[in-house]
Each structure stands twice: as C-alpha cells, then as structure tokens.
Amino acid sequence: MSSDSAQVTQQGNQEVWILTGNCRIQQGDSVTISHDAVLWIDYSQPFRLAPHKMKVYLEGDVLVEYGNRMHGGKFRGPTWLGELATNQGITLPQPDPDAHSAVTPAVYQRGLAIQREGGDMTKVGQPQPIMQIQYQGPGVAALPANVVPTPRAKRITINNRYATGFQTRGQETDPVTGESILMFDSGVNVLIDGLDEVGSVSILADRVVVWSKKGIRGIAQSGQSDEAIDTELYLEGNIVFHQGEQVVYADRMYYNAGLESGVVLGAELLTPAPGYQGLVRLKADVLQRVDNSHYQAYGASITTSRLGVPNYWLQSNEIDFVDEQRQVINPITGEPQFDPLTAAPVIDHEKRATARNNFVYMGGYPVFYWPTLSANVENPTFYLNSIKVRNDSNFGTQILTEWDNYEIFGIKDPWEGTEWNTSLDYLSERGFAVGTRFDFNQTYFPFMKTPATGYLDAWGIHDSGTDNLGADRRVVPLETDMRGKAIGRHRQTFRGDFRFFGELGYISDRNFLESYFNREWNTAKDATTGFRLEKLYENQSFTLSGASRVNDFFMQTEKIPQLDHTIIGESLLFDRLSWNAHSSIGYLHLQPAEAPTNPVDLAKFSLFPYETDSEGIRAFTTQSLELPLNIGPTKVTPYVLGQVGYWHEDINNNDVMRGYGQLGVRGSLMMWSADRAVQSQLWNLNGLAHKVTLYGDAYYADSSQNIERFPLYDNLDDDAQEQFARRFKVNTFNLPTNVPLPATVDERYYAIRYGLQNSVSSPSAEIADDLQVARLELRQVWQTKRGAPGGERIIDWIKFDVGASVFPDASRDNFGETIGLINYDFNWEIGDRLSIVSDGDWDLFDNGLQMVSVGAQMSRPQIGSLYVGYTTIKSPVVANILNASFQYRMTDKWIAGLGTSYDFESAGNLGQNVFLTRVGESSLFTFNINVDPSRAVTGIGISFEPRFFATGRYSKIAGEPIPPVGAFGLE
Fold first, then answer.
1. Given Cys at both, which of 26, 678, 766, 931 links 710, Cβ 3.0 to 4.6 Å?
2. What is the distance between the alpha carbons of residues 188 and 166, in angstroms, rounded to a whole number?
3. Which residues, including other chains, have CB under 8 Å from residue 721's CB and lie 6 or more apart?
4. Residues 296/314, Cβ–Cβ less than 8 Å
C-alpha cells in the first residue's frame, strides 16, 4: 500500500487512514489505484483465526483490476466502495506528522456518508459504482458476497403507554431553529425501528419531550411513523428502555434516535449473560449510552442480585461496559435464526466490564479493594472465585483461596476460550502454598489455524511437616521439603486428519499427590511426559510417539521414539475377509522405580518380577483375518490372529523373539419378543420387549515364549495401583519383600485369562501366552416406553448380563478350576427416579477375586438423592461394606447431606462426611465435618462460593446445579 500523504486517527475500535495522492492498494494479484482513499481497518484479536477486515472508499480516477481469484476484469469510475480481508499483516505507508488538520477532510465525510447509506451513492450525490466486492489474500477463505440491501430508514412511532391515552402540549415549531418541539404527558410508548439486526428500540416513559426537524404532532395524532434520523428525546418517569435482550430502567433519560446514544440518570441495566440463567444488573448515578453496544457508568455498581439492596456488589467510580449484540446466523443456510416460540431473533452477546477504583461489598461492608478490574461479565465473580476454611490434625488450619488472574491484572481482552486462576493457600501445619491453573478450550495458538484444548496445573509448597497416608503410614518422613506438581495436557487436530497429544507430568515425590490431592491420585491419569502425533487416513493410522521419565520414583517406559501403523477392517476377497493389523517399532527403556529414602515406605518396597532395567529395540507386527458368516439366524466368525515380535532385552538382558498364534471362532444369536398388551401403572410399563443375545468366543492360543520372560514395557496398572500392590503382598499375604505376589493376583495372568491379547489393538504387546478357553455370555434387556402421550421414549427397564469362561486345560490356564471369570451386571430402572443396581465377579480358586455388590439409588432433581449399597468380598481380602449417601434440600435456604462407609469385618468404620449448606442470595456457605479413621483425622471445614457459576461439590442437588439467583425471577 502506498500514497503521497497519509493521516491516521482512531474511531472507536477501528483505525482510520486517509490517503491522498497516487493511492495504490495491492492484495495478491488484485490492485486498486485512485487519487484519494479512506480506510477503516478492523484488526482481528490476537490468537484468533478471524482475518483483519478493511472497508475501502476510493475517489478520483479510480481503477480496480480484479485478479484471478476474482475471475479477472477491471472497473473504472469516479468512486468505489468495497471491503478487503486478510489474515496476514497489513503494510501501511508512513503517516505524515504534518498532515493533521482541525477540519476533517471532505473525502472522509463523503466516505462515511456513503457507508451509512449502505453503499447507495445516489443518496449522497455520488456516481454509483459497480456492486461492492470482497476478495481475500492467500490463506483466507472467501467472505460471503457483500450484497447489502438498502437498509430501511430509521422511523419513529409514538403511541400511548396507558389505556387513558397521552396528552400533548408545547410549541410545534421553534421559530429560531426550525425544529419541531412537542411534549407528551400521561404515558408514552416510543418505538424506533429500522435499526441494525438486533431489533427495534422501545421506550416507555410517563413524560417525553421530542425534538425533530420533521413534524411531530401529525404522527402523534395518526399513530403513523416518520423518519427518526434527526429526532432527539428527553424522557422522565418510570422509564423502561428495551432493545434486543437489554433492558434499562431509569428516572430520567436523554436519547438521540439518529446516533442511537444517550445519557441516563438514576439508571439500572438488566442484561443476560451467555451460560448464566439469571441477569446481570448494572446500576449507576449516570449512565451514558455511547452507542447500541457501549455504556459508560459513573457512580456505578454491578451485581447479579435482584434484591433492592443486594448482599454483594462491585462498587466503582467508573465502569466501561460493552455489550455487543449480534443476531445469530445459521452457519449452514446463512440465514438469521429466530426463536421458534416467540419468533424473536436469537441474539448472541459479548460482554465485558472495565472498572476503576473498585470495592467489593459483601453484606453491605467493603471486603476488598483493587484499582482496576477488567472482567468478562459471563463470569462475574469479582476477583475471588472461592474461599475455603478447614481444620484438621493433618494440615492444621487451612485457608484456601482461588483468584481470577484476568480480573486481578485488569486484562481487557483475555485470550479467547481460556481461564487463568491462581491459588493462594495457607496450611498452619505445613506452610504457605501457591498454585496456578490455565485452562484452554477451543483456543487458537499463534501460527496455528485450528483450536486446541487442554490445561496446565501447577501447585507448590515448602512443607514443614510429615505425611499421614493412613493405616500403617500415619507418620511418613518427607523425601523433600520443596513439594509440588506441574501437570499439563494439550490436544489438537490440524489439517483435518492430523492429531497431536502432548502432556507434561512432574511430581516432586512419590507421596505428594496421595497426601495433598488424594482424589486426583486415585482417579486421574498418571502424570507422564511425552507426545503422540497421529495421521489418520481412511481406516488407517500412522503414529509417532515419544515419552520421557521425569518422576524416577515410578516405573515408567521411555520411548525414543516409537512408530506405529494400524489398519482396521480392511476388506479382502470381495468383502469375504476382514483384515486387521498393527505394526510397531521403537527404542524403549523400561526404568524401575527407585527405592524410597524414608524407612516407612522402604520397609515394604520391592520391585515386580517384570520391573527390570531393560532397553533396546522392540518391534512386532500383529495380524488377524476374520471370515464373517451368516448361518441361519446365527452370526459366526472364524478368525486367526498371529504376532511376530523382537525384544532386544528380556528380564535377563537377553534378546528374544516370540511367535504367537491364535485360532478361534466367535458367534452370536439374537432373539426377541414384544407384547404391547403389557400395561402397568404400578411399574410404569407401556408395552414390553425382551431382547436376548447369546454370545460365545472359543479359541486356542500358543506362544513360543513364556510371559515371565518379558519386561512389561506397556504397563497395565497406574501409579496408585502399583504403590498399593507393593505393600499388598506384605500386608495381606505376609510375604517378604523378595517374594513376588501369588500368580492368582498377578495382573498379567488376569489380563491373559480375560483375552487382552485377542485384538490387534491390545494396549500391551507383551501380554500373550498359551491358552485354551471358551467365553460364554447371555446378554438380555427388557424395554418399555415411558413419557407423555405422543412423546413416549424407549427405555431399558431391566438389563441383566451374565457370563463365564470354560478352561479345558484348567491346571495350566485357570489354577485348577475348569470354570472361572464368572460375572454378572444387573440394572433395574423401577421408575425415572428409582433404580436398583448389582454386579459381581467370581473365581473359584483360592485367592481369586470373589465380590458381589448391590445398591439402590433414588433421586429427585432440586430436592435430593439417596443411595444405599452393600458390597461383600470373600477373596483375596474379606470385607462386608455398607455405603450410604444422602442429600436433601430441607428448605429453599438449607441443604443437608451425609455420606458414610462401614466395614462389618475387621476394618470397622471407614469414614463419614456430614455437611450443611446455606443457599444465600449471594453465595453458598457450607459447613462440613469429615472423619477419616484410617488416618485418625477429623476435619472441620467452611467453604464460601459465589452462588453464580458455582462449581464446587456442594453446588449440586441430585447431580443438577443449584439455579443462580434470579433464574426464575425474584425468590
């Protein structure tokens, strides 16, 4: 882009350039040449895929040469108006420091006027150019054709507000200014339409003074409309201003209908926030409506409370509030979307408040001050997300707080799709702690054209205590006093068929997560560090992966790197055969866990038989062929599966090759019956269908090598299970540390008996051995219809699956028992709010798993829930455990809950949690008592969480979130 002279100014969010003399703009192979040019540049936000947009007005000997992207062609004329877009940088001429003038150039005024007329040059006395066009630079998808219909003129209609009608008085025409002036009294409804896509403006007031260069008395008497572009209004008394989904209540107001701006005194603005059921409320002594999306408030407060005097609010000297409303466009049809019930346009909002000199008030008292705040109104938590106070003998008095960094640092336009919080915690028995968590969801990173999802969570403490991990580990010395974690995940798809998964997993020591984040330790994925890059092609995938061990106190495998190719369901011989394959090669290093330094853990620490320091190339290919057949009503599939693999080092550091073959047949037979005559109000039955599937899989497998030779490069258990298993053989079987666990509880043999090796996609290449087995299952379901007449839905009333395995060579394959792996799963939906569940797993040999559980669940949304369950375990441990949980909303303001577990065998009491939550107008206040007999700890906790957008464990009833205040009007 070039010109003889350039002048730059700022107009709202747009940058305006006025170019004079030999103006030339080039984009790709398209060029424009003119004497003068005005550019309105709307830069896209950082890290977003949207292109920069630029409106262009050209004047004086205009030449436009369209490139190949626009199918060639030229345009010559006196003026031209168009739009350009690019996601690359815009090169602009150097502005002339002497080009500023107190008078705006006429070319700018003409360009602005033509824009207001929607490109209709004739309305401003300019020759009409060709139809406006938009073209794009390299790498930008073409914008839709800029076919802009001539907009409707803004028109004003005046009607009565009350049934009694209104009165008019005053002088119709001012002899000095030539303006029409008229006062309306006794209630007026002013309607202004012809605005943007958000919709008309409706203003109700008791008294209105109207100035206009058009006649007013005529439209007031006839109820007809007239142009409102030069109309101004002053309103008083019970004002209700409504546009789109915005509602403003005020005492006095000035409004310019042509500019869509005004000033409001004693104002109150109610506006919705996406994802929030209630309304955001802004009150101000003076509220200036700069335009239809921008407000400035002085002496202002913002809250989500609906009370006259709220219990919580943010008080500021000045608030700059932006609410950009856009009508939602269907991305497929390109047409505007409308509410099917009200026929009103569907509106999307983007809201942000920037405030200065801020006080947060709770209960009428200031509790926090910060000089600057920039907050997304969709999450109006005012700096502090939550605060919890606890006390127990393990951590002492705990004050746990979470803060919103975007609000603390006053970041106006945070990274789209992200949340960034900081934790500041104090634990009297352990020390001060600080942490931060950054979440991103569908977020665009620099130089990437597709969004990513993931998080980074870090937390650390200088620990001055000892760990209490329960049972025989109540006083465990620390391996390090600087403790913490840094765990992150990143997932992204790009170029359509590439997928990237990256993760970081650092933990300071083996007991940190178990001590501080026990739920994460028991249920979350292991903290590992590595990556995986996948290329998908039809029914194939190509994978490059790598991994590094960061936490040397856990058994992990390093990959430096590994390549995999998988193909699933490839058709052969004219769809007669189905071929599956998985091939892999990589350099792997299995590193055993390092021994603990503290004597408590060291006393019961030992390595597993497959946990050896082994490394080298591992390469294998697993192939299978299947022949699906329909024999009468039965589906039968004979199949053959084989694997050939090479391991550079086995557990004795010798190289080994293994061949594995499997020959089998599986089949299924489905039967069903239906009886529409089955009707029962008691059991809520409307017809009954019984569907039964008989399934069987029998195969013979042979391996050239014993499973015990192989280190377990692809581990089966996670870190928490391994930590438990190391102590399990000492605590349960009284075995010395140098003696391995009995094979009956070895996870390798359990996986082999259940057929983990039956698929080419098996997660562990090492799991394979000699085996003969036939697996038989009966799967059945009873279905009925429930729901209002005409809206019935099919539900699974009762599900009951049962299965068992038969081992012909029982002494080799199933520890001497012919029948094994007996299991069942039962689920009975008695009603929509009551169900009974039960399941069991049973082996007949000594020390095999023998467990049965049964439970009942009852729930009523927003009322409460009840669960009672009983579990009996006969082997390898003995336990009879009663579990119960109860939650009930006693009143609109109080929720109570109880959870308990008790073992009727030697363990006795397993723990209780009792809580009481007060549902306030501004917050959820919870008092809870937690009893942990294993650690001999009784804790008392108090948590405070803002009621709006509450996400804690006490903010739900029967799985449903507590509605925010104002969701159903005044409470």
1. 766
2. 6
3. none
4. no
**Beta carbons of 436 and 406 less than 8 angstroms apart:** no
Distance CA 228, CA 853 (A): 74
Percent helix / strand / coil, the chain, rounded to 5: 10, 55, 35
Is the pLDDT score of 222 beyond 50?
Answer: no
Rounded Cα–Cα distance for residues 697 and 637 (Å): 9
Q: Which amino acid is at 796?
A: D
Q: What is the pLDDT of residues 428-446, one digit of tens each?
A: 999 999 999 999 998 888 7
pLDDT over threshold 70, residue 6 = yes
CA angle 147, 153, 159 (to 5 degrees): 140
> How does DSSP assign 125-190, residue by residue?
T----SPP-EEE-TT-PPPPP---PPPPPPEEEEEESSTT--EEES-SB-TTT--EEEEEES-EEE
| DSSP state string for 76-107 | EEEEEEEEEEESS----PPPPTT---SS--HH
Q: What are phi and psi of 121, to 5 degrees?
A: -65, -30
**Window from 283-297, 619-633, 860-874 with minimum mean pLDDT:** 283-297
Instruction: Please check the confidence at residue 747 and state whether its pLDDT lies above 70.
Output: yes
Please write the tens of the pLDDT for every residue from 923-933.
788 999 999 99
Contact 264, 285 (CB under 8 A): no
CA 685 distance to own-chain centroid: 38
Alpha-carbon span 690 to 783, nearest angstrom: 7
Q: Which two tokens stand for residue 411?
A: 């970041």
For residue 849 the two structure tokens come to 């798993």
| All residues at 6 or more sequence positions from 166 whose CB lies less than 8 Å from its CB, including other chains | 160, 184, 185, 186, 187, 188, 220
pLDDT digits (tens, 9 = 90+) for 660-674: 999 999 999 999 999
